[in-house]
């Protein structure tokens, strides 16, 4: 626990102007970001008598080791910069809302030639129209099924669409009239896009005009005695009305508004949001958060607004935003919202009428969400705390290990040897901190050497980062580990810095869309990616209190030896052996045996099993990639675009292999020099043709160097009788 007076700036140093400030801990990790109309007045509040501070604020200022600030021109700029830094640094003491589920949206991919209607989750994409969020995916599918009768827009995947185009036969929906079948040119691209636009207009609430138009067309068809067409229009109108009934009118005058309600207690808060478009509730979502700082309801509303509308691909800002309490001050927030929308936004508290009644409904939903969350989580919080305390007692640690890192080695009979590093903070998996390694120091299977290499590489990077930020000056030369260092460059001790890959979820900011297990395509983690000029260490900058290795005494000894060689003696190490679930400590002849009912043992098992899962997933992906490799991968300068063009032109690698250089040159973008290189690559990769005995017609084994040949030139194989000499050679 630090003394705030040790890093308190002098009052004259702090400017009396708007700005954003950051508190950092001893590892230069940003732990809190805040904004202020007057930096001098706001920061002075943190450096008063500790007894007068809110308990969470007291914890924050005693955890911090420094504070810094950035001056801006206006409070709106401060609001924008605060949100950017919260997203970038993910500070532990800021309010961070967690979605209580991944909400599905009804999406229309207007960025495609033939727009597609589908269910989407996760991050929003540019050029896609979103409606929702919905509580359940089946609710979207029910709505879409009703609307496809009137708006037969494409819903099939790209593969199904291409297959139908190739065969000239539409899918089942095309046959039953729920798809206009642009895949077989029943409608043009422009006509299909018009259908998609009408679909989006209807979903956006512009329903009255469209229904009146259909009713007019139905009456005209009836007058002209086109009764089948009139009946079809009648059924279309009924389908649209049925779809509209699924979202009842709650506000008159086709109002567009978002209603935000907050339910809170001393420890946690729940936020519920109703999206009203065209007077109808089009979606609902909820967030929960731990109140790790002293915040008012207005502060919670402000953070919710930032998260809801802050992203470039975030929700569109409606004309009205109704809230239970206004942020203080409210003018910068309202100005920011208006800037996001491009026109004036009304941010206010509803006082009476339908909007007040609907706000009460949203508030009841927020209260129920908080009760449900606390019911699910109360025992979990207690259990995690007890588990960490049991681990600290069993391993004789000074305090509970709030950050635990676990390492596991994975391979298949000595091939594709990889390692994983998973991180648990406060007993919960922190997947953004997961890391993956390829073992590069040696070939073959040796779990002990592999563990030593991985621990060395991980903590060498930690020490290098500490020196780069000026916090560690113990004499080790880390000058070689600087910005611009590349994968495979020499480290100070002469070892080679291997390829460290990540799961892509937090390095530089998911990120790509995560897969269901939380991983994405690995990215190379060169040391040049370590940004510390502005104090932003990304990779291995934060030390754990406990290192867990998957294995017994040998693996534990290797990990401890790696830390000792780096001069690190303040990080505990233990191992968890699978056979009897024994906990091994460095230098001990006997393991620590925790009771089978121990919450501490259960947490160590969870950490170990997660490291094993993450390692084996990476190892399998590497093996699958190696199996999918082709000679084209070894052609220098041949990228994915031209590889795909070659396969598309010839149809398969087999046909490409038998093609001549002139035929390869016919592929767009492939010159003669590249074609010759491709031909050479295939020739080198192809197995040699088997030799044939001209006398017998039998296939002979390939001659090995130094092996004598038979009378007709055929090689003499070991262990086979030689007809001339009557003996084995």
Explain what you see.
GO terms for molecular function: DNA binding; excinuclease ABC activity. Pfam families: GIY-YIG (PF01541), HHH_5 (PF14520), UVR (PF02151), UvrC_RNaseH (PF22920), UvrC_RNaseH_dom (PF08459). Keywords: Cytoplasm, DNA damage, DNA excision, DNA repair, Excision nuclease, SOS response. It comes from Streptomyces mangrovisoli. By secondary structure, this protein is of the alpha+beta class. The protein folds into seven domains: 91 residues, GIY-YIG endonuclease (3-Layer(aba) Sandwich); 111 residues, no CATH class; 40 residues; 116 residues, 2-Layer Sandwich (Nucleotidyltransferase, domain 5); 225 residues, Nucleotidyltransferase, domain 5; 55 residues, 5' to 3' exonuclease, C-terminal subdomain (DNA polymerase, domain 1); 43 residues, no CATH class. Helix content is 37%, strand content 17%. It is built from 19 helices and 25 strands. A hairpin with a 5-residue loop joins strand 1 and strand 2. Helix 3 crosses helix 11 and helix 8 runs antiparallel to helix 9.
Layout of strands and helices, then pairs:
Blueprint lengths: L18 E6 L5 E7 L2 H8 L8 H9 L2 E6 L3 H15 L8 E2 L5 E4 L8 E4 L8 E3 L5 H11 L10 H10 L4 H4 L13 H15 L4 H16 L3 H19 L11 E8 L3 E10 L2 E11 L6 H13 L10 E3 L8 H11 L4 E3 L4 H43 L7 E10 L2 E11 L2 E2 L5 E4 L8 H22 L31 E3 L20 E2 L21 E5 L2 H13 L6 E6 L4 E3 L14 H29 L12 H11 L2 H5 L3 H5 L6 H14 L5 E2 L6 E2 L20 E2 L4 E2 L1
Parallel strand pairs: 8-11, 11-12, 13-19, 19-20
Antiparallel strand pairs: 1-2, 1-3, 4-10, 5-6, 5-7, 8-9, 9-10, 13-14, 14-15, 14-16, 16-17, 17-18, 20-21, 22-23, 24-25
Helix pairs in contact: 3-11, 4-9, 8-9, 12-15, 13-14
Function: The UvrABC repair system catalyzes the recognition and processing of DNA lesions. UvrC both incises the 5' and 3' sides of the lesion. The N-terminal half is responsible for the 3' incision and the C-terminal half is responsible for the 5' incision.
Subunit structure: Interacts with UvrB in an incision complex.
GO biological process, one term: nucleotide-excision repair
């Amino acid at each position: 626990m630090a003394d705030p007076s040790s890093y308190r700036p002098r009052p004259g140093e702090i400017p009396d102007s708007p700005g954003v400030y950051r508190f950092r801990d001893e590892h230069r990790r940003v732990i809190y970001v805040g904004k202020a109309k007057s930096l001098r007045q706001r920061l002075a509040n943190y450096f008063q008598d500790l007894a007068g501070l809110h308990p969470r604020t007291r914890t924050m200022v005693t955890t911090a080791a420094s504070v810094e600030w950035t001056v801006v021109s206006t409070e709106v700029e401060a609001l924008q910069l605060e949100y950017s830094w919260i997203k970038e640094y993910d500070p532990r003491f800021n309010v961070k809302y967690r979605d209580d589920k991944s909400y599905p949206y009804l999406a229309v991919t207007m960025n495609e030639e033939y727009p597609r209607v589908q269910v989407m989750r996760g991050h929003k994409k540019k050029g896609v129209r979103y409606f929702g969020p919905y509580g359940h995916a089946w609710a979207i599918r029910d709505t879409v099924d009703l609307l496809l009768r009137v708006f037969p827009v494409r819903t099939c995947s790209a593969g199904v669409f291409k297959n139908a185009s190739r065969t000239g036969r539409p899918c089942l929906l095309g046959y039953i009239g729920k798809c206009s079948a642009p895949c077989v040119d029943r409608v043009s691209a422009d006509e299909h896009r018009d259908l998609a636009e009408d679909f989006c207009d209807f979903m956006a609430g512009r329903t009255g005009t469209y229904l009146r138009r259909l009713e007019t067309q139905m009456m005209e068809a009836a007058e002209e005695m086109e009764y089948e067409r009139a009946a079809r229009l009648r059924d279309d109108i009924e389908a649209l009305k049925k779809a509209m009934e699924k979202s009842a009118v709650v506000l008159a005058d086709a109002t567009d508004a978002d209603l935000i309600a907050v339910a809170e207690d001393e420890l946690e808060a729940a936020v519920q949001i109703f999206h009203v478009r065209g007077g109808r509730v089009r979606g609902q979502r909820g967030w929960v958060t731990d109140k790790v700082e002293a915040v008012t309801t207005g502060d919670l509303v402000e953070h919710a607004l930032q998260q809801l509308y802050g992203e470039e691909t975030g929700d569109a800002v409606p004309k009205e935003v109704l809230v239970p309490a206004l942020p203080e001050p409210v003018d910068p927030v309202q100005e920011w919202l208006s800037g996001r929308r491009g026109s004036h936004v009304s941010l206010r508290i509803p006082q009476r009428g339908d909007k007040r009644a609907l706000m009460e409904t949203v508030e009841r939903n927020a209260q129920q969400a908080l009760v449900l969350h606390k019911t699910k989580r109360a025992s979990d919080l207690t259990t995690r705390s007890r588990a960490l305390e049991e681990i600290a007692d069993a391993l004789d640690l000074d305090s509970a290990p709030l950050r635990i890192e676990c390492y596991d080695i994975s391979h298949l009979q000595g091939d594709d040897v990889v390692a994983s590093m998973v991180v648990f903070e406060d007993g919960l998996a922190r997947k953004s901190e997961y890391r993956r390694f390829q073992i590069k120091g040696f070939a073959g299977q040796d779990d002990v050497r592999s563990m030593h290499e991985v621990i060395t590489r991980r903590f060498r990077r930690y020490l290098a980062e500490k020196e780069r930020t000026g916090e560690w000056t113990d004499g080790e030369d880390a000058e070689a580990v600087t910005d611009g260092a590349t994968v495979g460059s020499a480290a100070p001790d002469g070892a080679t810095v291997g390829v460290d890959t990540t799961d892509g979820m937090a390095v530089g900011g998911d990120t790509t869309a995560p897969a269901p297990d939380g991983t994405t395509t690995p990215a190379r983690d060169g040391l040049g990616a370590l940004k510390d000029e502005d104090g932003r260490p990304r990779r291995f900058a934060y030390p754990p209190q406990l290192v867990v290795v998957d294995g017994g005494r040998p693996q534990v000894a290797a990990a401890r030896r790696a830390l000792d060689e780096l001069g690190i003696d303040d990080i505990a190490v233990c191992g968890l052996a699978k056979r009897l679930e024994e906990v091994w400590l460095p230098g001990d002849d006997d393991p620590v045996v925790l009771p089978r009912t121990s919450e501490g043992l259960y947490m160590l098992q969870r950490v170990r099993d997660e490291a094993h899962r993450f390692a084996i997933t990476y190892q399998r992906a590497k093996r699958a990639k190696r199996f999918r490799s082709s000679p084209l991968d070894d052609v220098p300068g041949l990228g994915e675009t031209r590889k795909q063009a070659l396969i598309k032109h010839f149809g398969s690698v087999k046909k490409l292999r038998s093609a001549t250089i002139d035929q390869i040159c016919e592929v767009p973008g492939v010159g003669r020099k590249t074609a010759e290189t491709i031909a050479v690559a295939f020739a080198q990769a192809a197995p040699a043709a088997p030799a044939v005995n001209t006398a017998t017609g039998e296939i002979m084994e390939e001659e090995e160097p130094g092996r004598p040949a038979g009378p007709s030139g055929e090689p003499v194989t070991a262990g086979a009788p030689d007809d001339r000499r009557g003996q084995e050679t």
